[in-house]
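Issue 218. Parser rejects a valid record. Input:
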Amino acid sequence: MDDDRLLRVCSIAAVLADRRRVDLLARVIDQPRCSSELAEACGLSAQNTSKHLVRLRRAGLVRVVRDGRRSRYEAAGDVPGRLLTSLSEVRVDAA
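Output the parser choked on:
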């Protein structure tokens, strides 16, 4: 793996190291949602939700879709869903 790809993988891993961001990502994979819906569903403040969504967007995992005056967040293609599915299938040794 070249250095650029290695850096990209490490950056995405760092973003996904936070349980709240994984929860937000999983919810927008299911269906596009506005930040207030996500905040309520995840039990986060609007400010924290916004900060986490910015990190997910900068990592290329979510994108913003404008709907009139509202913005909705959705998965950036099918890669985020495949990524979460693959990660959930890794067996972790508790030792």
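Fixed in the parser; the record now loads. The helical segments are 3-16, 19-30, 35-42, 46-58, 79-88.
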